[in-house]
Write a structure and sequence with these properties.
By secondary structure, the chain is mostly helical. It contains nine helices and two strands, in the order βααααααααβα.
Length: 222
């Protein structure tokens, strides 16, 4: 058996951050709907366009952090890193959104963007989660609520996704008069992203081992 390659978690996290930002930007241009988590910040950016999609992401996530603190009444040092990473994600997202804004938008081209964005997103999520370092606020929000309420992650994630989509639909129709960010693509992603990430995890685990340079990072969210 070939020896596995060890990759620092910090490297895989940054790679995942870049890939997921690129994938989301592609899906925005595709126009078939984006992931449930990104749908609400995107709708808010369409309604209140003074702030970009990228900026609305950390604003949304910091809001979730306040909700989490109100529920658990416990602050972890890893939250500070999560805030920084969420802001960085927003900046990278804005960069790719602006950089890809000039892409052609014929139907088949938009379909290609969406299809290409899916595997990129699955790889990105796998690299970020496997990094074993403090994740963005949205991830710590879901993980900590799972522990606090003693329920499965799948149940919390499903409930959160439903709330995001419902709010996105209501706000879109109320303020814009049509749907933005939510579409058939959103439904498809909700159904198959988990499977895609699982497949990528299985493939990557056969060839690489992800281990952070800093042993302290993993303990910062415990």
């Amino acid at each position: 058996m070939d020896k596995k390659i060890t990759i620092p978690g910090e490297v895989t996290f940054v790679a995942g951050l870049l890939l997921v930002s690129f994938a989301i930007s592609l899906m925005v241009i595709a126009g078939f709907g984006i992931s449930t988590i990104s749908s609400l910040p995107y709708v808010l950016s369409c309604i209140f366009s003074q702030l970009s999609f990228g900026i609305w992401n950390p604003v949304f996530q910091i809001g979730l952090l306040f909700v989490l603190l109100a529920i658990t009444k416990r602050f972890k040092s890893g939250y500070v890193i999560s805030i920084v990473l969420s802001v960085l994600f927003g900046m990278i997202l804005d960069f790719f959104t602006n950089a890809l804004a000039g892409l052609p938008t014929e139907f088949w081209q938009r379909l290609l963007y969406f299809i290409a964005g899916y595997p990129l997103m699955c790889v990105a999520i796998s690299l970020m989660v496997g990094s074993k370092i403090p994740l963005m606020i949205i991830d710590t929000f879901l993980n900590d609520l799972t522990i606090y309420f003693h329920v499965t992650y799948r149940r919390i994630k499903t409930l959160f996704d439903i709330i995001c989509v419902v709010l996105s639909v209501i706000l879109s129709l109320a303020f814009l008069g049509h749907l933005e960010g939510v579409g058939i693509g959103t439904v498809i992603l909700a159904c198959i992203t988990g499977l895609g990430v699982h497949v990528v995890n299985t493939m990557l685990s056969k060839v690489i081992i992800i281990k952070p340079w800093s042993s302290k990072l993993g303990g910062m969210v415990k």
